[in-house]
Amino acid sequence: INAEYMGILAMSTTKDEQVALYEKDMDEKKIHYEALKQKKRMIFLIVICLVEFGRYYCVDLVAPLQKDIMRQFGITDVGYNLLYSAYAFPNIFLPFIMGYVADLIGRPTTLIICTIAVLIGQSLLAFASLQAINIFWLAIVARFLFGCFGKSLNSTQGTYITDWFKDKELAFALGMSVSIARAGTVLNFVVATPIYEHTHSIAFAFWVGTFLLGVSLVCTMGTVLLDQSAKNASGYTGVKKKSEKIALKDLCNLSGSYWLLVLCIVGFYTGFLCFVNISASFAMDRFGFSSSHASILASILHLIAALTAPFIGILIDKIGRRTIITISSCVLLLCGHLFFALLPNRIDSPVLAIVGYAVIGLSYCLFGSACWPMIPFVVEERVVGTAFGIAFSCENMGMVFGPIIIGFISSSSRDGDIPNYFWINIFLAGGAALGLITTIFLFFVDLKNGAVLFSPDAAERQKKLQAKQAEKNQSSFQSLS
Fold it and tell me: 410 pLDDT exceeds 90?
């Protein structure tokens, strides 16, 4: 408790009275803190979005260099896909744990730890890829370390943005986050192959990623300083009330709507991200693209999101319809994979390739802008960080097993010297179908619960429904008395 209140608190006769006085003062200062955030929110948004730019450049850095990595390390499709599985495996557990830790120890410390950890992991990958070193198991360890804190960084960033934008323009803010992050992925697909062709060094391409993560670390420090300056100016400490502190039992009370949302996330991202992993080689094998042109084509998956996500976010903030837009995104992803499955395994048609990639890219943009902003509206505010963490953990279950399954399909079902992509696309379509089915269920559950997710003013509608439920509970208690 702040020293300036010690005299006042000393006059209180009980510890409970002292806590009540302190919490009342913090409530008043929190109002001032929220007002200060409104003035700095756009600067804060740009800085925190840049935190993920470097990480997203590095996540799929192996994709445009797939064939070169396989040749240098002497590995098969299964070995290459292990680079993704090693990244995804720790994310089954750690985002949940780190989300819970963030709710306990605070977001600033968590954000800094995660950014430093992914920087170390990427540096180790670049070191392992040096031709003088060239140790594949060390590259796997590096991707494992990178993955240990990668999604946790994403989760912590999401809770920061939710805190600053929940009452206004949340979909726009998360859409901007997707846009800037995926701009990093686009940059990767555009420049990684030319960098390798000019330097003939995979390690050099990886060191560029390390540099960008260093820039992300600077932005992390900027994020923490901006948030802390608003707290210092208002006198708000950010310490949670006893009633706001999270307990493990709270996780048992997460709503059915939340778990439907998690299943939707697992299905959709299995269908999308597992395709991203092979997108460059897919274009070369099926459509005859060169390595550099295949990388540019693969960047379409992210370029659409980078260009349109903020605008779709603004639209969602105005019209709501989050569940409908999420259903539409799953339908587009399903159609994209079925479209590719029905094409011949080898076809010389760049136009068809561009159409398919554009449909899948649009589905990702719609999903990212509509789905993630729903999480704060289906859980209590005090467990938002943990809820994001659990969602990321479950998402990565698909990212652990999906690449392994695709690797085995590629090795066991061949069409000459290339994989039989029909079964790969059918597997990916199955993930999209899971997302579609669960979102349809979520739509009807939401309508039954007051259509919070369907409403454009979801935060206000949620507050009214909670107040109405509290009034109803109070009336029931009085009637029993």
Answer: no
